[in-house]
Amino acid sequence: MAVTTSQTFDTVFSVQLSRINDFLKDYLTAEPVHPVAGPERLWGALRYGTLQGGKRIRPLLVLETARACASEAVWDAVLPTACAIELVHAQSLIHDDLPCMDDDDLRRGQPTVHKAYDEATAVLAGDALLAMAFGLIARRTPLSDRLHAETLLSVVAEFSSVTSVEGLVNGQYVDIYYEGRPFDAQVLDYIHTYKTGALITFSVRAGARLAGASPEELALFTQLGRNLGLAFQIVDDLLDVQSTPEALGKTPGKDQAQQKATYPALYGIESSRQKVDALTAEADALLDQFLSLRANAPTVPDVQPLRTLIDFLCHRIH
Ligand code: GRG
User: Fold this and answer.
1) From CA 36, how far away is CA 20, in angstroms rounded?
2) Best mutation site among 88, 101, 113, 172 for ligand 1, i.e. most ligand atoms within 8 A of its Cβ?
3) Would you state the pLDDT for residue 61?
4) CA-CA distance, 272 to 61, in Å (whole number)?
5) Share of the chain above pLDDT 90, in %
6) Rounded to the nearest whole angstrom, what is the distance from the C-alpha of residue 304 to the centroid of ligand 1?
7) Residue 89 CA, ligand 1 centroid: distance in Å
8) pLDDT by residue (tens digit) across 33-46?
9) Ligand 1 midpoint to CA 167 (Å)
10) Is 110 helix (H, G, I), strand (E, B) or coil?
């Protein structure tokens, strides 16, 4: 398969990226009139942390999985969840950059939120984004005969788990816990599964569930999400070793400086890259299995954009 460059990515996904970015902008600019000075600065910070750059990988995964399981027609129904995931992702980056966490000054090529504003504002902007994400799904998802409240509630419950102790918060905690401590393969996979894998797996699962995937199909997409989550974080680990601040938009070399548990630290660069390639090939094979399940369906599912997205996120350079 041809390697998908950033330029191809922007072209192939231009419509989807516009819909995601317009939706996020609309939601985050629906700011009430403030009778006192102050709140507009908090709103400015949460917009800054969300709208300035970002590849939008997670909402794209929601949209493209939904397209594979149904068609583009379901995008209206899945966009609120897709964008809610991006709000949580933005929140996690804002908090991750804080001095008490990974302590970064640069993100997406610009000063991090606590540098552009201040620490208290960054904490509170992140808090607001997290709560707003859940409100976004509840307020903006159009229910219909194809998407019942029961399914949506169950997706929201899963979202709560993967953003908290069965997901990001847990992964981040263990990641920090092991800084400078000896770690093994089990610890490393645990951290990656929770810190990064949980939200990526959820993005794929949410797209499939909201688009009406069968239990058998959902099992395939769950495995696909796990593969991608791990591959994505290994690439992130590799970029930290191999990239530059200009290409990355953040400071490389921090994992080694902070003695983080990473793939290159445990397995070396070559084996880490081989692992990414193996995970990508498996993800592709899972999509073939999905096509086989739908072999007798009236229309052939369009999985090509999802294959392109998978290829991009496993070969990305930022
Ligand atoms: C309460 C949800 C919640 C989280 C708090 C701070 C924290 C706990 C978790 C941080 C987890 C974290 C930063 C994981 C790293 C994931 C990762 C590889 C991020 C980079 O994602 P990209 O490349 O970033 O998609 P862009 O900038 O493109 O959006």
Assistant:
1) 31
2) 172
3) 98
4) 23
5) 94
6) 26
7) 5
8) 999 999 999 999 99
9) 11
10) strand
